[in-house]
Amino acid sequence: MIKKILILLFLLLIIVYLVVAVTAFNTKPSDQVCKGMELTIKDSIDHGFISKKEVFRLLNSKKLSPVGKKISAINTRLLEEELSQHPLIENVECYRTSGCKIGIEVTQRLPILRVMANNGDNYYIDHKGKIMPIPNSSAHVVVITGNVNRDFAIKELYKLGVFLQDHPLWNAQIEQINVTQTKELELVPRVGEHIIFLGKPGNYEEKFERLKTFYEKGLNQIGWNKYSRISLEFNNQIICTKKEK
């Protein structure tokens, strides 16, 4: 008797499940309403240039917030296009989720250099070599000063910025790049009281390899504050200027 009751209960549960499932599956998308947004901002731990609050504010100002609207009426491509116009956003992907929400993934633009030129220019250069405005929060990147215009910064200094990003040792050691009137480069290191003179832009692999050898076999032996200037301008040699006593 008990066995029959358990079988009947089991069959009843199956019937209830099937009824609920069929009802859910037969609900038309046009009848579903967006219950919220699932927003993800990539690289937000290292760079907080744009916040979730800012994204929500931007969508509300454009009257594009999907919350409360019918899923079938939400144009995800339009959301992507509007958010991508923000100067600190590189890419946006919008999609519908299974929970009647709109997923939004925002990729921020990542700076590799900051230019603070003599002519008053103040901007970032991002990892794709494009001019990027200064956000509310700062980024810890190499600062470029001196006689630099935007064309020189994008065509020449961007290459040095990429080189530094690809070499953690030099990215940590170099904190400033000064451009002289003759468009030659002077580097200010974080460790050591000296100026590193590169000369004209280019040939970074060879120049920094010489500098690394000099650091390891030279300054580690005689001290990091012995010289005021280390020149890597000429091939296959390093010219050092001693500090004046």
Explained architecture:
There is one protein chain. Helix content is 35%, strand content 27%. β8 and β9 form a beta hairpin. The protein is elongated, with a radius of gyration of 29 Å. The model has no long low-confidence stretch (mean pLDDT 87).
Helices, strands, pairings?
Layout: H1 2-25, E1 37-42, H2 52-61, H3 76-84, E2 89-96, E3 102-108, E4 111-117, E5 122-126, E6 131-132, E7 142-146, H4 150-166, H5 168-173, E8 174-179, E9 185-189, E10 195-199, H6 204-222, E11 227-231, E12 239-242
Parallel strand pairs: 1-3, 4-7, 7-8, 10-11
Antiparallel strand pairs: 2-3, 4-5, 5-6, 8-9, 9-10, 11-12
Short summary:
The chain is an alpha/beta fold.
> What is the strand arrangement across the widest sheet?
6-5-4-7-8-9-10-11-12
| Mean pLDDT over the full residue set | 87
Largest sheet: 9 strands, mixed
Instruction: State the oligomer.
Output: single chain
List keywords for this structure.
12 strands; nine-stranded mixed β-sheet; alpha/beta
